Structures are given as structure tokens and as C-alpha cells.
User: Which sequence fits this backbone?
């Protein structure tokens, strides 16, 4: 087992994504880690957050005691709405997604393949209850799909692989992978490492990645 | 005179029959017509197919309907949430069926059903296990799956305000699936926190035109699913 | 040429239709003759009129000087909106039509066949500019289609025929035909005359109708 | 900062290129973005395909655009109305193409294009000449034709009020095709009678979410097509 540096914190990864989003982008954040991105948007950049349950212009979390049961995000957490936001129904919301109007979505992952296949909805365990939510719609409709994830599983297994063994959320849909160890671009020629955390070497990174990396 | 207002939730759901397909609005705790669902539990219709994004939380609302063994099959996108206990248990025992549909496909299938569109093509689920058994077709060099419009015998929805014509407006993200479900059911039953006179809702801001709604019952202070969960309540009380 | 009574006036025909519409019906009125039906609804019966350009709850024509360029019906005529009306966009409007939510539509006709085929959008003249509007959507989606029409053309040609010679608006879609001479139901067994105007005899009616009638 | 407001109609339409597909909102005289169309006439882009329910009236707005020979093809449901003179003349001379689409199919094709649906089935036009050349398929014992989603390079729409995010609300039946066209164009350009601050439009009543709109120009007192017709005006003036 390699002795890896811890690399970037979750907030640092989220910050990198926030920096890479262009001003004015419409962005959907998945549940969990992706939600951290909202808190990292640099001053002076305006990003509009979409939540698929019917709100464009998600604001910061409400102050304690200010929560509204009927103002929540796709993760069922209370949110706020910015001035200039709007509410709409589910079919209109997914028209935004499927129709390619949302510019970016940030999702978690169980596995990403070197071709950009994403598996993030089911570990395919027999007897497990399948649940997909809006993930398949997002990866099929949004032109830029970014994954935010720990580089390996808790037990050290690679999450970036040659072929996903878990059921796919969508084929060839991931554009970029942000992990605690590196930022990796999915290109026609394979996985291209754009940046590595302090102390991470190409050799170390390749060791915990089950698909060939280009540096 | 058109007057879709009925005096009680019990009266509103009385025609629901065994084996009916029922759409139930709501996403998580927002927009779920709890009082109508509880009236349906009291009513007792069984062998139902329920179309709803989730499977309910704790032991109230949709979860209680399932727990009361009135539901044969769920059509939904996300059957297990943090507070969903009833469905997972029955599912693992093989005592309830599940048709898993991606959330956007579910919304679009319901809208299509309501709009008289029998089938449409979507890129969602192509190349995944949920594509299995479905027709795949290429348009402009990209693959799409064919999905069918979805209709129901009844829809149960929750809204903020209604008039006797059935015009509805909603509250924030409690809107979610409710408007498309209104379109897709032969009989749409809405619970409204407030019933007002025709014209009190500005015609420019009506979200669900009355034509899609058949019965309205006023439930002035609807229960909060969140609050019921905190108090660990069960229905029937 | 038979010497026919004039039969009912247009208002009388419209009145018959208005009487046959059930209380609470959602009704779409075509352009021209069908518009007369709105003025004939009996006291105490509430009918909601739909116009496919985005209004449910069309009211009476505005008083002179009260017209609003942005409140018109499908015939581009100024209208009013009743309390409890609502506005919506074209896709939602035709969801009401195609989805079977509008209960009745009242349309004019060039020809109706004994099977209920309707031709009312084009005389098929070479060089004529085709224009269809919403007629095909209405006949395909609305469960009850009533035709209001003069029994024959201005030159005395039958409009009720065995087979339409003009291009169809829709096959087997008309349920009932209201003319100046008779009310005729389209049934599986053919055209069934329900009522005749004063002075009209079965023989006279059959003479100006190019499809067999049952009495 | 997001600011979709542009200073003039000329600026708003400047990127429209020869050969572009353009959706133009409006139904009869209601909701037609006359100032944007006139700016497009000044701009001069030609060989356009225009998707609009009608073909314009008199010699202003869409009719003037056609009269100025900038339109190669019309996709519409009703190309001749009482006051339509320009299109019929060119059509009879064989100088403009026409794709005739039933009105509801046109609306649904535009919505589908905007919603990422490449094709769908509809009962409209089955058994008529407009079915010719289209795929027909049976669902549940009934025949339907397959229709394709429709997208555009640009949409020109008219609304009552807008904010810098592009959120729009409309006026009465001037809403018509405008909201679906906003969804279906790569670049949607809206003329608004009034531009307000974000939040001034209640988020519950927004009809077109800003995500579907790319440029907004304020035209405080838009011309009335009816009035122009009465005065027998022609554009260019």
C-alpha cells in the first residue's frame, strides 16, 4: 500500500471547481460533496444554482429557525432563494436539464472510467434497493459534467477505472474529475492530469488509479 | 354552476377503487398531500399502483399508505431516502413491486400522458441498465430510448390556493410534480390550504388551469411531514 | 332543385348546440359560425370556453373602445376574460386539446362524411395556400366534435356526403352535425336524424344530403 | 455579474446570420416582437427560415421581413389571415417555401426541441394529407404520427416585464408561443415593455425562467400592429 499524502480537503476540491466555473454559468449540484461548491464561489462571480425539484437561483442555507419545509433542494435540505430566482414544475425543470440549458453539473461518483463513463447510482448489490433520482437525466443532458470525489474508496480501491464494474449512470459523460489528489480531464486520448495536490507524484497517482493517466 | 369544492378529504377520495393507478404529488416533504393520503388510508382502497417520486418517510403519508398494505406497486425515481423505512422493508421481503424511472423521464412521461402524447424519445438512461427492454433509436447520430406517456385514474395533489373552478397555485418547491400529475389523471383531487373566489387568483399567475382539476378540498393547516417525523407519529393515529 | 324551407337561423342552430352542452363543459369554439354558440348559453348553465391561443374562460366581446390588442381569441377577435379565467402558453393549451381535457369542440365544415370524416381546412384547389391552424389538433384530441354548418353550399351542393372529396381534417371524428335543416348524429350504423326544422320532411332532407340518412 | 440587458434592438439582433433558423413569437397581432423584427430588417440577414404561427399582417413586422425578401422558408400553421397579403403573393409566385404544421404540433415540436426530446408521437394529422411522408405507429390500438423536435438559432419574443437574469412575464394572450420558443433557441432575444430589478418579479409567477433567455432589450412603448395596419404603415418607414 502506497503512502499517499492526504491531498486537498473537500473544501479545497470544491474551491477548485468553483474557480473553474465561468461567470454566469447555470449549475446543478448533486447531493453530498457537490453541495460544497456553492460555498466556494469567488467574490464577483455570479453562478445560478439549479435544483431539479423546481428552483433556479438557490441561495445559501437558511439561518437556524428560518427553515421552510416547502423550500428545499434535491437533497431535501432546506435552502433559500435569491432575488431573481424562480419556481417551476418538474417537467419544466428537466426540460432545462435534458434540453442542454444547464451548463454544468457537479456529481459524486462510485466509479469513473477512462472514457468518462460514470457509475454513481447503484453498487449493483443483489437485494439492494435501486434508486436513481435525477442523475441519469443530468449526465444525459448537461454538456459539462464534473465529478467531485475522493480519489479512492475508504478501503483504498481505485474509483477511476478502465471499465466501470458498477451499473452505469451514463456512458462517456464525465468531462473532468476533481479528487483530493488531482484534477483529471477526460479526453479523447484518455485521462489527462491537469493538476496534482502537494506531495502527489505521477507515480503515486498512477498507483491508486486503475486506468492509464497522461501527465 | 361549476363548483369543484367538496366538503372533506373523505368525500374527495371516496371514488378511488381497488386496483387504481394513483399519482401522488410531492418531492420529499414538500408538496405531499398528506391529508388526502390519510383519507385514502381510512377509505381502504387496495391493490393500488402509486406513481410518486419517493416512497414516503417514517410512518405517515405515503409511507403509511404503503405500510397499510394498500400499494401493490410503486413507480418512482428514488424509493429510498434517509427517512424511508417502510418501503425498503417490504421491498426486501418481495411484498411490493418497483418500477424505477429516472426522475426527469418520470416527469416527462407524466406530462406526455396528460398532453396526449403516447410516447417520446429521451437520451436519459441510454447505455445503462434502465434502458433494458426499451426501444433504442438514433436521431442525428445520437441514441435515445422510447418512453411511454403515463396516465392515472386519480391524482392527489397539494397546493397553496384554489378556486371553485379548480385553478391552483403552489408554494415554492412544493410545486414539483403536482402540476404535471394534475394533467395526467382522469380525476385530479387537490387539497388547498385556502379556497378563494374566482378571480382572486390573478389569471396571469395560475399554475394549474382548472380544467385539469376535478375536486378541491380545503385543508387550512396541513400537517407538516417533517413535524410528524420529529414526533415519531404513525398513521392511523 | 327541391324547394326547401330555410329552416333554422344560425342563432337557432347555435342555440340548439348550447342546449346540448352539459353544465360545466369545457368547450372550444371554432372561428365563424361556431362563435355564435357563446351567446346562446342558457341562464344557469356554466360553460368554460377555451381559445387555443392561451385562454380558458373566454368572456363576452368587449364593449366598443374596451378592446385590448393582447386579449384576443383564435380568430384574432378581441375578447374578455371571466373572473376565474387563466392564461397559458401554446404547448399547455394544446396539451388541453390533445390530452382530451376539452370536452367539446364546435367547428365549421366544408364536408362531413357519413362516417364522421371532417373536411374543413382546405378545398384542395391547386395553387391555394394551405392553412390548417388548430383544427387537426382539435378533432384528434377532443372527445365530442360538433359541426355547425349550412346544410348545403351556397350553390346547393350537399355538404354531408358519403366520402369527403376535400382533404380531411380528421377521419371519423365528428359526433353530431347541426345544420339549418336538421340535427344529425353520426353513429356506427350511419347518419341518424335527431330533429328536423319545421317544414323539412325526411324526403326533402335526403334529397339535399349525399349520404343515406336514418330517421 | 449576469446582465442580459442590451441597449438597443439593433444590438440585440446583430449576431443573426444569413441562413439562420429564427422562431418569432406572437399569434395574430398579440405578442409579436415588432421592434426586434424591424431591427432584423435594418440588419439585413437573409435566407432565413422563420418559425411563427402566422406570416404577419399588412406591411409591418413579420410581413415586412418577408416583403424585404429576407425569408426563404416559413414554418407555420396558418399562413394566410384576413390581413396577410405579402406571403400569399410570394407563395403564389413560388418565391417562398412553406412547411405547414398543425398548430398544436407546432407548439409541441418547439417545446420538445427545447426539452431535449428529439421526437414524439401525436394523433394530430393522422389520416390527413399532412401525415404524408411521416412515420405512423400504433399505440393501444390507435394511430399516431411521429413528429420531430424543432430548434432554432434565434428566438425573437415579446414580453411585458423582464429582469437582468432574463426572467420574463407576459401580457394575457400575448403569451402564446413566446415561452416555448424561448426554450428552443440557442439565442433567445426578448423585448420587454419594462425591465425591473431581480426580485421585482415574484419567483412564483415567472413564466419564462431566465435560463432560457440570453438577451433582453427594453422597448417601453411597443408599437401596436393593429394601429400600424389601420394607418396603412409600411416598414421600412
Assistant:
Amino acid at each position: 500500500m502506497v503512502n499517499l499524502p492526504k491531498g486537498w480537503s473537500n473544501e479545497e476540491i470544491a474551491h477548485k471547481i468553483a474557480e473553474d466555473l465561468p461567470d454566469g454559468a447555470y449549475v446543478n449540484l448533486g447531493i453530498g460533496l457537490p453541495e460544497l461548491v456553492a460555498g466556494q464561489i469567488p467574490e464577483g462571480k455570479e453562478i445560478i444554482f439549479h435544483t431539479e425539484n423546481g428552483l433556479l437561483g438557490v441561495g445559501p442555507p437558511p439561518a437556524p429557525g428560518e427553515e421552510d419545509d416547502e423550500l428545499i433542494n434535491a437533497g431535501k435540505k432546506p435552502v433559500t432563494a435569491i432575488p431573481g430566482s424562480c419556481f417551476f414544475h418538474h417537467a419544466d425543470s428537466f426540460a432545462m436539464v435534458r434540453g442542454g440549458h444547464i451548463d454544468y453539473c457537479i456529481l459524486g461518483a462510485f466509479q469513473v472510467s477512462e472514457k468518462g463513463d460514470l457509475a454513481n447510482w447503484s453498487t449493483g448489490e443483489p437485494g439492494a434497493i435501486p434508486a436513481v433520482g435525477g442523475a441519469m437525466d443530468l449526465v444525459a443532458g448537461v454538456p459539462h459534467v464534473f465529478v467531485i470525489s475522493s480519489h479512492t474508496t475508504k478501503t483504498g480501491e481505485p474509483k477511476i477505472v478502465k471499465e466501470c464494474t458498477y451499473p452505469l449512470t451514463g456512458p462517456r459523460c464525465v468531462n473532468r474529475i476533481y479528487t483530493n489528489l488531482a484534477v483529471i480531464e477526460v479526453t479523447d486520448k484518455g485521462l489527462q492530469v491537469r493538476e496534482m495536490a502537494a506531495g502527489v507524484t505521477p507515480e503515486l497517482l498512477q498507483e491508486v488509479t486503475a486506468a492509464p493517466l497522461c501527465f | 354552476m361549476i363548483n369543484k369544492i367538496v366538503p372533506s378529504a373523505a368525500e374527495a377520495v371516496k371514488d378511488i377503487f381497488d386496483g387504481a393507478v394513483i399519482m401522488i404529488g410531492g418531492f420529499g416533504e414538500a408538496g405531499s398531500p398528506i391529508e388526502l393520503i390519510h383519507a385514502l388510508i381510512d377509505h381502504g382502497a387496495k391493490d393500488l399502483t402509486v406513481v410518486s417520486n419517493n416512497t414516503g418517510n417514517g410512518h405517515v403519508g405515503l409511507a403509511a399508505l404503503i405500510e397499510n398494505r394498500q400499494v401493490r406497486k410503486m413507480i418512482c425515481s428514488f424509493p429510498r431516502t434517509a427517512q424511508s423505512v417502510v418501503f425498503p422493508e417490504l421491498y426486501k421481503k418481495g411484498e411490493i413491486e418497483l418500477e424505477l424511472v429516472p426522475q426527469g423521464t418520470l416527469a416527462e412521461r407524466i406530462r406526455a400522458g396528460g398532453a396526449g402524447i403516447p410516447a417520446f424519445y429521451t437520451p436519459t438512461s441510454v447505455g445503462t441498465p434502465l434502458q433494458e427492454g426499451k426501444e433504442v433509436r438514433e436521431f442525428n447520430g445520437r441514441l435515445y430510448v422510447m418512453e411511454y406517456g403515463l396516465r392515472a385514474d386519480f391524482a392527489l395533489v397539494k397546493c397553496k390556493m384554489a378556486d371553485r373552478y379548480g385553478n391552483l397555485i403552489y408554494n415554492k418547491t412544493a410545486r414539483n410534480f403536482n402540476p404535471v400529475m394534475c394533467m395526467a389523471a382522469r380525476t385530479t383531487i387537490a387539497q388547498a390550504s385556502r379556497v378563494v373566489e374566482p378571480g382572486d387568483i390573478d389569471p396571469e399567475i395560475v399554475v394549474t388551469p382548472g380544467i385539469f382539476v376535478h375536486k378541491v378540498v380545503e385543508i387550512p393547516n396541513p400537517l407538516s411531514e417533517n413535524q410528524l417525523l420529529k414526533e415519531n407519529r404513525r398513521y392511523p393515529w
In short: Residues 15-119+150-226 of chain B form a domain with the Glutaconate Coenzyme A-transferase fold (CATH 3.40.1080.10). Chain B has a mean pLDDT of 97. Residues 103-115 of chain B form the longest helix (13 residues). The first strand of chain B starts at residue 21 and ends at 24.
